[in-house]
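User: Modeling request: complex.
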Amino acid sequence: MSLIAQQIVNGLALGGIYALIALGYTMVFGIIELINFAHGDVYTLGTFFSLAILGLLGATGELHGPFLIVAVVVTLVLAMVLSGLVGVIIERLAYRPLRNAPRLAPLITAIGVSFILQNLMIYWHGPSPLPFPQILPNPTYAIGPVQIAAKQAFVIVLAVVLMIVLQLFVTKTKLGAAMRATAQDRDAARLMGIDVNATIALTFFIGSALAGAAGFVSGVYYGTTWFFNGFAAGLKAFTAAVLGGIGNIAGAMLGGFAIGLVESLTTQLLSDQWSNIVVFALLVVVLIFRPTGLLGESLPTKA
Amino acid sequence: MRKLARGVPPKLARGLLFIALAAILPLVVHDGGFVNFLTDAGAYVLLALGLNIVVGFAGLLDLGYAAFFAIGSYAYAMLASPQFGIHIPFWIMLFLASGIAALFGILLGAPTLRLRGDYLAIVTLGFGEIVPQTFLNLPQWTGGPNGLGNLDQPVFFGYRFGFNILPYYYVMLVLIVLAVVVAQNLRDSRLGRAWIAIREDELAAKHVGINTTTTKLAAFALGASFSGLAGVAYGAKLQLVSPDQFQFSVSVAILSMLVLGGMGNITGVILGSILISSLDRLILPQASNLIFALAHVRVDLSNSRFLIYGAILVLTMLLRPEGLLPNRRRRAELHAGTAEAMP
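Assistant: Request completed. Predicted assembly structure:
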């Protein structure tokens, strides 16, 4: 029993990462109905950026005291900004010209962008896995029968904080209202004086920045990365977004944690080589039986 | 004589000319490596022709097409090798494997074809991941990560193919001719017109009485059956099947062949697949050698494969979404939206 409880903690930590990535999928889908296939690779780029920033800061091992906090904050913010900019550039170059083309056209370019990003990361760090510095001291705390590591607490807390900030941004600010308006009806939003292109670019920036944050967190959590990380993680996060109800921010969080739990419990009960299969099978089942997800409203079926 | 020549439709004449050229090519070029390359490229032509039925004709984006290729190859590997001591002849396996692949096409399609286009794409992608991963996870049947080797060599009326590349080349050529004939006839049939109708407007197609579900299923099944052929021919030639031959990048490579050549256009798809295979197997290694010879820098351009597939997909969709040899109707569809968008 305590083993299962332990796996639930592990699953929540994993799920925090998936939830952060899923937010980007869900926001972009919500606003332009595009499955941003390159999103998983932006997440990996986030890890690569964090690696470079930590290198510049000279942080190669465990850090303590104020320097730890400075390093974490600086790396997180810079990785988010850089990833966000990558997202904006991708949108500008690869998706915006096709905004009125048939739906499958931007999906095909998105796959192309994903492959280009992966190859650029191969140029950057080679095709093999590379280590990520273990900057966080990692004591474990016992809560009843369950051990929670500092790293896991860090992942979960950071994910939840970022999601709350995002939720407040989208519901309480003017820019958030512009995003929601653009998602509902682009033409009406334009008539109300909203700069639709800028709003879509902002959506890509925020979504990609969250993927960048997830990239940093995953580097800290796993202690390793490689160029192909984003493929499976992206697919799982997309599953999370669909499970929660695509276009729905709270749904993406819920779905992310659910997928994390599914993955850790499959690893515990079956074996880790079946976890991908179980998650993808879940994706297929959800899409077939409940395409609106857990929290989703009925989707418009624009062809 | 002139009368006879006039009686042959120009398209057929051109086709026969190409077949004749392809048939004498290996007899003129005495380069085993080159013929080997052509045979492998032929397998991709078959795959591209099959995917073209799904994506080009019916407009259903299948991102896991390599899974059917895997199913065809593994069918041959399990039913014509020492693995289980079953040795079904190559020629029967061609039909059997394409049937098995078609069956899996129906199994995947039946529950998923009601989904919207982009969701379908993701589900097929998931399927494309699940299939090789399952083969990897069941070593007692599939040899796990090592795959299965020592597959049976085809025998043609007592003639053993052995390790000579020529007979494999001719088998591939015959299969391609067969696939082209089938694809052309499908395109011009009632079913083919139903596919085009669904691709252009599913709702309208439904309202003129097309059974969209069975029509789409037929596209999935027939498209998958081509990859069954490719899987058997490729597996028999290589004598080996392993799960890493069927990664997502294979599905994307086949998709790039379609996009580059022109979705829906049979000649275009063949051109696209030969171009991409040549790029991958001939041009990139040669260019790397050339750079080494000129600048004495060791670069392996084969490392840029993903970049090139990606760039082909992005640039073609942005600059010429109908591909090099467009299908006229497809071009009109792809440009309709952008023309409307002009302010």
